Each structure stands twice: as structure tokens, then as C-alpha cells.
Amino acid sequence: MMSWLLILLPLVGVLGIIAAPARLAKVTALLTTLVVFGVSIAAAVGFGGWGNGTMGLTGSFQWLTNYGIEIQVGADSVSLVLVLLTTFLMPLAVLGSFSSVKDRLREYYGWLLGLQAAMIGVFLARDLVLFYVCFEFTLVPMFFLIAIYGSTNRARASVKFMIYTFTGSLITLAAFLWLAWSASQAADGQWTFAIADLTRHATTSLAASEQAWLLLALLIGFGVKVPIFPVHTWLPLAHTEAPTAGSVILAGVLLKLGTYGLYRFMLPMCPEAVVEWAPVIAILAIIGIIYAALICWIQTDVKKLVAYSSVSHLGFCILGLFALNPMGLEGSILYMVNHGLSTGALFFLIGMMYERFHTRDMRAIGGLAGRMPIWACFMVFFVLASVGLPGLNGFVSEFLCLIAVFTAGEGGAYPGVLGPWYAAIAALGMIFAAMYLLIMVGKIVFGPERLPAGNHDDGPLPKDLGVREIVVLVPLAVLCLVLGVQPWIIIDGTSAAVADTLAVYQPLLEQASQQTGSAVSNALAGGAP
Amino acid sequence: MMMEKLWFVIPEVVLLAGVVIVAILGLVSSTWLRSRVPWVTMIFVIGAGVSFPLVFTDEAVSKSTMLLPGLGRPMGMIACVIAVCLLLLTVGRIDRKYEQAIAEGRDRFDPLRSNKGEYYVFFMLSLAGLMLTCSANDLIWLFLALELTSLPTYVMVAMSRGSRRAQESAMKYFFLGAMSAAMFLYGFALLYGATGTVELSAMRDALADQAADGGISMLAVVGMMLALLGIGFKLAAAPMHLYAADVYEGAAVHVTAVLGFIPKAGGAVAFMLLLSTMGWLDGAALPMPILILLWVMAVLTMTLGNIAALLQRSVKRMLAYSSISHSGYLLIGIIAGPGLGFSAVLLYLFVYGLANTGAFAVLASLQREGREIESIDDLAGLRQKHPGSAIALAITSGSLLGFPPLLGFWGKLALFIAGIASGHIVLVLIAAINSAISAWYYLRLVGLPLMSEPSERSETIDRDSSPWPRFTAIGLAASMVVLPIFLAGIQDETELPLTSDEADAVALTDDADQDSSGF
Questions:
Q1: Which of B399, B400, B407, B417 is most worth mutating to test chain A (most A CB atoms within 10 A of its CB)?
Q2: pTM assigned to the model
Q3: Could you tell me the residue range of the domain that residue B349 belongs to?
Q4: Choosing among B302, B346, B391, B443, which should be mutated to test the A contact, i.e. which has the most A CBs within 10 A?
Q5: Do A155 and B451 touch (CB under 8 A)?
Q6: How do the domains of chain A map onto residue ranges?
Q7: For chain A (length 529 residues), average pLDDT per consecutive 10?
Q8: What is the bridge-based pairing of β-strands B366-367 and B462-463?
Q9: What ipTM was predicted for this assembly?
Q10: Are B289 and B266 in contact (CB under 8 A)?
């Protein structure tokens, strides 16, 4: 019941926006997102799955019976954490758009709410059809948000975003359908699309080679979304051109659909193939970390810099997943939340700067600390959170992911197919991150004041941040601090679900480490200790 | 036997009665009566549609000797629904200038110059041809029905607008159509030679005997391949697709919309019928050469259609190529075979028919100085002056692209499931990549009207003087959003229990029931 409410309430909000006059659109959207947030908190409080792996908030109804399509919803603790992240970010995204979006208001807020419904649907879906429909539908609102409200290069950005992700997910769809068919063959022609049944089928009756094909197809679909190098090129463009709220949602939640997909489908469904191919995926992730970090270093466009930093940061998230031990998975899930908070906040801050000076070019603007002290404080705070300063949220998850990879090898605390070398090289990304982000802060926050030509005092915006903007940033800052000091609230809550996911890996990994690493990892590690 | 044939053509008889009445009505000098012609036509089409469930009752179907007895009812009803949409599109468009001149007193009514009745007569004849194709049980009937589907469309293209381009299109269409008819007739002759019968059920038995005796004869295989290639023309499937773009572009929009559905559905039905004689219904695989031919046709059709559509500047040509690519998707369902595959084909025909008609309805709802809009740039910024048309175009394009949760997605999903379930995952992957290619040009149809700024060209675009195309477009767009909710019901209707064992089982239980009631 709670799940249906979470998915349908935003859609009711869309109807409200259509019915109400345009000037009420933003208020309607804000109220809707706040109500949804309240409902999600209520759902989380009443949720019985914290700390144990059980499913809650379930519901279902029969639909296309001749294909066995039954629409099912439900949440385990990992899904619920991501739902909470979504419902938490949405009111902020709406509030943060009040001043920057000036026309076509109804469409804007309508699309935002539609996007919210789809994102919650992805996390709550317990059957592949609902999952795929919601997963795909997230593209439409984002496409329109970028294409209508984006900056100069928006048309190209929106089309590129759409084509990349649509192509990837079509291949994933084919893989899903194949999996469902193969399950139906095993069950005497009884079709099912329930994720739990298909997972059971995939782990028990698929051959290793079939699992490898499945892994490839899932990697294409979800890898584009994360994004994993070399299919990341849509992201900087889409991020840079999107309106502020679009970037926030894109970084905060949409990228997590990819990592969530990997966690929910790839890890449980093709364990043998994952053990075999984890080193390859890890190497792609490491290339992404280093390559994107190096690109960040030479960026002059602040927004593009933060966008590329997302590519780099999500590499850690992927590494944590494929460390295949509890520490890594928990770190990775925590990372999903943390990245959403800190990068989302950075996009808000850059949006606020852009609204005032209409530039994102680091060469044209600088030394804003004297002019906008409150903004500068927040900027430094969130940059430090993003860099991974101990005490703030980014540190815990990054550290967990890296140490999980470090120990996931021969002689490590956990059996695994990665190892110290992977962690050592990936850790360079942390150093680079500190460099490029601090260089950015140094240029735009500190130093002599440089402003782009033109009059900046007109318009309704105050010189420094106004109350509304502070209200947007404070919850994010508080949560960053809380999760930095008390990350256990998420780690403990999700540990049981993570352990369930990993249960199937224990024998496989022990076997793999007994054989001194799989063939692939041996070849790739090239004599790693 | 004769009674059975007559019983199953009752819907066509209803249409033919309509043909006679409409032909007369179109020549009446009263303007009021003439303007009612489309609505009268619609009444007869709806009447035919309603008669399907009454004629094709489960009992009658189970006793019939037709090869695919379950096909008639869903296909007929789908055809009637789409036909009503196609008719709504034409209200106030046929003979517009002439009727206007009469209304303003500039001209007198002259039955010789009026095309009003004729258009609707030909429309109904073509529709009747499609329905007859479904109930065909021998090759001669099949040939005649297919030609009845196509011949009226040649005339419709020629008279659709006064321009020379329409004439040119009609000539191209006619000659190529005649060539394709010759081709599949030749194929039919070879099939007759190989099996000694024209009756489809008997042919199926003869081919089954041949298969049991060491393989289907080469003569039958070649005949089947020729027949498929020839009928591929109706589907606009490669390599017989070359006419489509020119013909679609030359015809008036309301005729193009007809071409995009009725002959295509007829072709798909004929494919299903012919291939079902090849031992498919008994669970045997198709002979390899035929399977390869179908594969090549499917892959070429969708790939060429999509890539060519990418390159077009004219909206009609783009939609023409897009409809070619949809034929390619349909072929996946046909390759998948009876059961899931054919059910998916029917569902897809319905879904595609609605979306395609909707897209053409948008084009029909717009005009510039009495002419149709041509270039895709004309659509830029459409939303500012014609929001309804712009949104309808976006939704129908999204549905043609197969974007969830719009109706088109579910059609594609059924096709993909059928393809995978029959072991053709590579074909499904190719189709998936093709869908991704098609996103490029469908997104243009979404993006340009909704997001671009109007250009000088698009500023001069007006609404069509008849509101009906616009209503049709908006209604169809709404159906793309609403119908998925009722998908379960639609799918029950398009489900074909086609494997012969099942059909026999149904027949047996029915017989048993009757026996027991007799006692």
C-alpha cells in the first residue's frame, strides 16, 4: 500500500499541476514532494526490514496473465535507502528551481514529479516489467528538462543522453526477456517476470557461459547509466547543459539507477560470471576514475568539472560492488547516498552562482568569498565532503570501498578476485580529486575578486544567498555531517540485505582463490602479489 | 462447405452493402447528404466490426476447416477500429475545393466530377479485401483477396490530390504492384504444382506427407519463396520496399495513412497463412531456405527502413521509411511462428496501426495555404500555435518508437518475447539496435514541435479547415496513454491458440459438450 502511494502520489501531483493555474505550479510541486517525503519517512519508520534481509512494503496485482506479468512492488533496506534519497532530494530540487525557471512552469514541475514517480518505481519494482518501464520512463522527463530548460547546447545534449541510455537499456531488455524465457522453459512454460524467481533461476540453472552473456547485456545497459568508461561521454554534456535541478537529480538519483541495477541484477543473477569478469569491470572503473580525474584537472567550466568528477567518483562505487565482500557492498551503497548528497549540493551551488553571474567559466570568475561569504562557506564544506575529508560523509564510503578492494584478494581478509594493486591505483583518484576540487575552490572562492563583465546587481536575487537558497542547502549539509559521523545508520540497516546478496559468492570466491585467481584475473593482474 | 464460406463472409457482405449505398449517396446532388457520406461509411464499417464476434463465435470457429480459423475475429476487429480512425481523418477532406466551390455558388454539382462517393467505396472495398484475406482457405481466394486489398488503393492514390505527383505515384505503385502480383501468382502456381491442390488445408497435409517422405520438395520451397517475396510488396518489406517512399509522399496524407495500414495488414495475414502450410502448426521447423529468406527480409527491412528514415527531410518520407521498418519488426513475430508469434503480430498491427494513423492525422491537421506540409522544418515550434497537434505528434512518435509506458512499447515487448521464445535472440538484438537507431528520427518529431523556436516557414502554418483530423490525432494520442491500462483485455482478444493440437483439442471438447447435451 505504502509503495503504491509513493509511486502514485507524484502522479497525483502532476494532475494537480495540470489542473491548477500556472503560478501555483511550483507550490503544488513543493507540497507534493514534501508529502511524498513524509510518506517515505513513515514507510521507513514502519519498515521491518532494517537490519534483517526481509522484504517490506509489498504489493502486487495480476496483469498480463498469458505472459505471467504480475506487477509487484516491495522494498528491502537497500531499495528503501535509495527511495529515501530520492524523496529527500526532490523537495530541494523543486525549491532550488523557484528562481531559475521562469517560463513553461507547469511542464517543468510536472516533468519533475513524473521523474520522481519513475525513480521511486525503479527502486520499488519487484518484477522486471515494472522495473524496465520505470527505468526507461526516467529518460523522458529528463530529456524534456534538458531540452527545454537547458543552456545553449541543450538540443545535442538531450538527444545524446537519450540515445545512449535508450540503446543500452534496449539491450538489457532483450537480456531480461531472454532470462524470463529461459526460466519459463525450466518451469514448463510458466512465464514469470518476478525478480526473485528469475534470480533463483539464473543462479541455479544457467551455465557459466550463459551467465557471461547475461552479464555483458546487463553491463551495457546499466554501465551506460552509471556511467562506466568508455560509455560515459553522454554524461558531461547532459550534466553541463541540464538546468540546476536536472543536474542535481541526474547526479543524485539517476546515476544510481545504474549502480542499483548492477547491485540488484548483475550481482545476484550471474555470480559465476561476475567472479570471472570482476577484474575487467574493476579495471574499467579504475580507468574511469583516473581518466575522468585527469580531465577534471584541466576543466575551466565548473559545472563540467563537477560532472566529470561524478564519473570519477562512481568508479569507486563500482569498485566497491565488485570487491564482492560485505565491506565493499555496504561502502558502495553508502557511496550512492553520499555522492547524491554532496554532488547534488555542488550542482546547487554552481547553479546559484550561474544565476547571478551567468558564467561557469573559472577564468572569468573568482574570489567570490568576499562578495558571497555564505555561499563560499557552503562551497568549501561540500567540496571537502566530496573530496573525502574525515568527519564528513564522503570519507567513510570512499575508505570502505578502497579497503574492501584492498583486502579482496589473495591473502586478504576476504576471499576475492581483486587486490591491493587495484586499490592502490584507484586511490590515486582520491588524490587527484583533492587536487582538482581544491584548485576549483581556490580559483572561484578565494583570491582576488574577478567578475565577468556586466551589471550583476539587478534582478530579484540577493547579493549573497537568500533564505530560500540556504533552506535548500542546510538539510544537505546536515545530512553530510550526520552520515560522516554516524554512517552506521545506513551500514547497519543494509548489512543483512547485503549479506543475503553475497551468500552465493562465498563458495565461488573461495574456489576462485584456491585456484589462485581465475584465468582472466591472472592474465590481467600480470603477476600481482 | 459453401455455407461455411458464406457464413464467414457476413462482415464483408455488410461492407459491400455499404459500398452500394455510399456509391449512390456520393452522387446525390444534395450537399447535406453528400457531406454525410463519411459518417454513413463509418456506420457500415462499425457494423462489420460488430458482426465479427457474432459470426466468428468460438463454436463456428472450432468447426471451420480454415487453416487459421482464429485469425478472422481479432484481425477483422482490429481492421475495423483502425478503419474508423482512418475515416475520421478524411472527414471534410475529400473533394474539398470542389465542395467549397459548390457551397459558395461558384460551381454546380456534376456527378462526373465528384470523387466523394468513390473514395469511400474504394476504401470499403480495400477493407473488405483485408477481411477476406483473413478467411481465405485456398490460394485463389487468397490471391483475389490480396488484389482486392490493393487495387482500390491504386485508384485512391491517383485521385487523392489533383497534382501530377499523385498521378506519378499511382503509376509507380500500380506497375510495381502488378509485378509483385505476377510474382506471387507464379509462386502460387509452383505451390500448386508441388502439392496438386489449391486448398490451404489440403496443401498443408500434402506438404506434411512430403516432409515425412524425406523433405519438402524444392518446387514447393521455391514457390513459397516467390510468393513471400511478392507479398512482401504489400508489407513494404525489403527488397520489395522501394516504391514505398515515393508513393507515400505522392499521395495525400489521408491516403498515405491507409497505405500504411490496410495493405500491410493484408500482407502480414497472407504471410501467416502461407507459412502455416509448411508444417509449422504441427510443430515442425520451417525449411531452411525459407527461414533464411525471412531472416534476410526482416533484417534488411528494419535496417534499411530506419537508416533511410534518418536521412529524410520530408516528414511523409520519414514516416514512410518508418513504416517500412515496422514491417521488419512484424516479420520477427511471423518468424516466431504460431502461438506467441502470431498473437504478437496481431497485437503489433493494432498498436502500430493506431500510432501510425495518429502521426498521419497530425500531418492532416495542418496545412499551409491549402497545401500539405512537407518538410520536417515546418514542424519547428509547432507547439506555440498548435499545442494539441504538437503533443499528439510527440506521443504518437514516442509510441512508434516503442517507449514505455506508451502503447507501442507493449506491442514491441510482445514481439521481442515471441522472438526470444522461438530462439531468435540475435534477431531480437538486431531489432533492439534498430529501435535505438529509430530513436534518432522519432526524437526529431518529438523535439522539433515541442522545443524548437518557430522558424519563418513554420510561422505560416495553419490548422486544416476541418477539425476532424485534429480530433483524430488527439484521440489517438490519448489512446496511446490510456489503452495500456486495458492491455490485458486487448491481449486476450489477440491471443491465437494456433497450434493444431490445441485447435483439435478445442474442437473435440466442443463436440463432447454437444454430445452430452444431446443426450
A1: B417
A2: 0.90
A3: 2-518
A4: B443
A5: yes
A6: 2-454+462-518
A7: 86 89 87 92 85 80 77 89 93 88 86 93 92 92 89 86 90 91 84 88 87 92 90 89 90 92 91 89 93 90 91 92 89 92 93 86 85 90 90 89 85 77 89 90 86 67 84 92 89 87 83 60 49
A8: antiparallel
A9: 0.87
A10: no
